[in-house]
Amino acid sequence: MIASLLGAVTMLLVFAAATPARAESPQNLYTLNCWGCHRANGEGVAGTAPPLINAADFLRVAGGREYLIRVPGVSQSMLDDADTAVVMNWVLETFSKGRVPADFRPFSAAEIHHARTEPHLYDITEIRTQLLRKMVAMKIRSSPADATVHPGLSSGGTPPIDE
Ligand code: HEC
């Protein structure tokens, strides 16, 4: 009895392994690849990863769209281009409710692919700070110092990423 039960379970496992993988839902892609640092509700982990809540604000400043997909967590994720685009669009829709610009074009696999061919961002903290300052200048945010990995603003003169 137990042996036949085990046999049936084994058959099921073999069958499951042989069945082509179904595409993961965007939420599962997020949970498996991003949750560890950005947490369930995109709240982030102080000192480790910034919140993704209202990350759509980056779309409103020059260079911000590109920045969003060139951070290492995205550009160097284990996901293929299509799944990376899916999870990024889900992140924006889910954690930036009411703040995604009306003219936002969802990220495409081709755009992710292109971003991955660009050289790595050499000073991501500085670029991020510059983008947050632009948001303050445009009154999109009231302060560049949100609860991020890198509190304290550096005073370096690195220019923002090219548009
Ligand atoms: C190992 C931790 C880690 C993982 C895993 C990770 N990220 Fe991040 N993420 C960061 C850090 C740290 C930053 C801030 C920029 C930097 O210093 O790299 C960031 C920045 C971002 C940003 C820009 C927002 C901002 O405020 O700077 C987005 C969007 C983002 N991550 C999305 C994702 C997505 C989507 C995934 C999963 C595919 C992911 N991240 C996986 C650590 C991580």
Structure, explained:
- This protein is mainly alpha-helical and 163 residues long.
- The chain has a domain of 114 residues: Cytochrome c-like domain (Cytochrome Bc1 Complex, Chain D, domain 2, Orthogonal Bundle).
- Helix content is 48%, strand content 0%.
- Helix 2 crosses helix 6.
- The radius of gyration is 20 Å and the shape is elongated.
- The N and C termini lie far apart (68 Å).
- About 9% of the residues have low confidence.
- Bound molecules: heme C.
- The site of heme C (HEC) has 22 residues, from helix 3, helix 5, helix 6 and helix 8.
Concise structural overview:
With 163 residues, this protein is an all-alpha fold.
Topology of this protein?
Blueprint: H1 2-18, H2 26-33, H3 35-38, H4 64-70, H5 72-75, H6 81-95, H7 109-117, H8 124-137
The chain binds heme C (HEC).
Keywords summarizing the entry:
mainly alpha, Cytochrome Bc1 Complex, Chain D, domain 2, 163 residues, binds heme C
CATH homologous superfamily assignment of the domain at 24-137: Cytochrome c-like domain
* CATH architecture label of the domain at 24-137: Orthogonal Bundle
Mean pLDDT: 85
Strand composition percent: under 5%
Please give the count of helices: 8
Largest sheet, strands/sense/barrel: none
Order of helices and strands: HHHHHHHH
Uncertain spans, ≥5 residues at pLDDT below 50? 147-160
Please give the number of β-strands. 0
Which molecules other than protein and nucleic acid are bound? heme C
Instruction: Quote the CATH topology of the domain at 24-137.
Output: Cytochrome Bc1 Complex, Chain D, domain 2
What overall form do the CA principal axes indicate? elongated
Spatial separation of the terminal alpha carbons: 68 Å
Question: Helicity level, as a percent range?
Answer: 40-55%
**Gyration radius, to the nearest Å?**
20 Å
CATH hierarchy class name of the domain at 24-137: Mainly Alpha
Q: Which structural class best describes the helix and strand composition?
A: mainly alpha
